[in-house]
Amino acid sequence: TGGTVFFYGAEGSLGLLSNYALCPVFFDGELWPSGEHAYQAAKFDNPIIRETIKSSSTAKEAALIGRNRSLKRRKEWCTDKKIETMMLIQVSKFSQNAAARDVLLSTGKA
Question: What is the mean pLDDT of each run of 10 residues along the chain (110 residues)?
């Protein structure tokens, strides 16, 4: 494993590491129910799409909306922007949420 921490899904002892964990994060001037909600909404300029994603009851539902290729994404949504956005969301999540930060630090890999 080379020191890699493996987890999948928002359940279990490492669940708060998942973007799907309902762990509120303030990002891009708004409070999002999860990192996944924030990431999927970041793909769009359209406030109606962003609000639809934000009001999704689960991160999985938010992801399904955000992955819909028929919806017009931001013009600048490219690989570099995706990586930068995810990094900023993760920094926000773990700096704002003590429980998530504690789980991350408990892995000894943070």
Answer: 70 90 96 98 97 97 97 92 96 97 88
Q: Kindly report the pTM of this predicted structure.
A: 0.91
Rounded Cα–Cα distance for residues 10 and 34 (Å): 11
Backbone φ and ψ of 30, nearest 5°: -140, 155
Concatenating the DSSP letter of every residue in the chain gives -TTPPP--SS-STTGGGSTTS---EEETTEEESSHHHHHHHTT---HHHHHHHHT-SSHHHHHHHHT-TTSPPPTT-SHHHHHHHHHHHHHHHHHH-HHHHHHHHHTT--
Distance set, CA 68 to CA 23, 49, 61 (Å): 24, 11, 11
Of 84, 81, 94, 107, the closest CA to residue 24 belongs to: 94
